[in-house]
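quick one
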Amino acid sequence: MNKGKKLYEGKAKIIYETNEKDLVIQHFKDDATAFNNLKKASVEGKGVLNNRISEHILTSLSQCGIKTHLIKRLNMREQLIKHAEIIPIEFIVRNIATGSLSKRLGIADGTILEKPLFEYCYKKDELGDPLIAKEHIFAFDWAKEEEINEIDKMTFRINDLLQGIFRGVGIKLVDFKLEYGRVWNKEKNKSEIVLADEISPDTCRLWDVKSEKKLDKDRFRKDLGNIVQAYQEVARRLGIMPEETNISEVNFGKATSLKFKKKK
Ligand code: 5GP
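structure w/ guanosine-5'-monophosphate:
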């Protein structure tokens, strides 16, 4: 698989073309951004960890019947993925109130929601990814009603599966963001919806079950420090860090040289 020219560069990832039209390479950068790009930094090792964590999660979801864009992880920073036409919507799921929900509506931080709350945001950096109603999606033809119905069902199932994956390792899945895209299914001769982008501590809020310690990007957003250690902790609990790694001893600068466990 040959890596071709850069097709797109986002805040945390770069997409490269390959010699196959339907496949692209997704490269995970160490760049961290928050508050619509107002806060920026490079967090050494973050891209490597997100690549591995996202591979693990998308593979687990795919084993449960969720269609994803992931073909395989290629190396420490790159994945081979299907070239999807990304739907310009961020699909947010909340199990516990915090973040922009608490700020916007004055709901006490940490309030457990009776059922998952779905929100839709228009993916537009210039506008700060504004919250929208479902009706906006249809009014401006960002996706068809049947597509959103299918995505809602997939998102609901993904929330259940992710909650199980994280609960099993002592982590509460507070909220997260998903993206979906359309890919062409040659056998069925029609376009189909796949889960795209990544699922990682960059896109989820993850709290330790007992201490409620934040193990996600809020450590960067809120200047809590130890960002890479928190992401490593998530990887370690998911069983995808080397057993001998002692999180408290890991030097930030050496994070990229850590070897991941080989897949069985
Ligand atoms: P909030 O709306 O409270 O800021 O975010 C809700 C959830 O969606 C959080 O888990 C947050 O990480 C994720 N999220 C929302 N927007 C974005 C985004 O533009 N990029 C990333 N990486 N995550 C986002």
